[in-house]
Amino acid sequence: MDQNMMFLVLIVVVMVGMMWWQSRKAKQQQGKTQDFRSNLKPGDQVATFSGLIGTVESVDLDIDQIVINSEGTLSRWRIQAVTEPPVVPNYVSDEEFAKQQEEEKDQEEQTAEPNDVTETVNAETVETAGNDADQTPREEEQSEGENPENSSENSENKESSAK
């Protein structure tokens, strides 16, 4: 019974800790949003939750309204509907990307040139050493002209020719 009670208490403590952590994060997020909205000034880029993107023309915090200019069209919104504009990534064309990749490759080759000589020497040494070590004893026997599968027949032929 004592172990079951400790397990139950542990589960309750973990659940209370998770709820406290989540509420703390939610309050931090609300604080960030409130700071963003209270610091809005004309010229700031904003977006609405419905998707309108534009710049702030005027802000009236007394009545919680904001006027947004979107491509020459002015519209009035409640300040609660305003959020930070989405981050638009910079577009890089395929040609520009390929050029960047080539430049990076050239830079890597320039920094790697002094090491190429030692790598070539090491590769040749490995290849030379590897060629000698690649042959197994069985292959050496075959290269001498003796077939290992027929070695019993060869020994029988030698014995019969000796008689």
From TrEMBL:
Which one Pfam family would you cite for this protein?
YajC
UniProt keyword Transmembrane helix, yes or no? yes
Subcellular location, principal? membrane
Q: Where is this region: Disordered?
A: 83-163
* Compartment(s): Cell membrane
Provide one Gene Ontology biological process annotation.
Answer: protein transport
Q: Which spans does this entry mark as compositional bias, Low complexity?
A: 117-129
Protein's UniProt keywords contain Nucleus: no
Q: Which UniProt keywords apply?
A: Cell membrane, Membrane, Protein transport, Translocation, Transmembrane, Transmembrane helix, Transport
What GO terms fall under cellular component here?
Answer: plasma membrane
Transmembrane regions listed in the UniProt entry:
6-23
Topology class, membrane: Single-pass membrane protein
**Known InterPro entries for this protein?**
Preprotein_translocase_YajC
Protein family membership = Belongs to the YajC family.
Q: What protein am I looking at?
A: Preprotein translocase
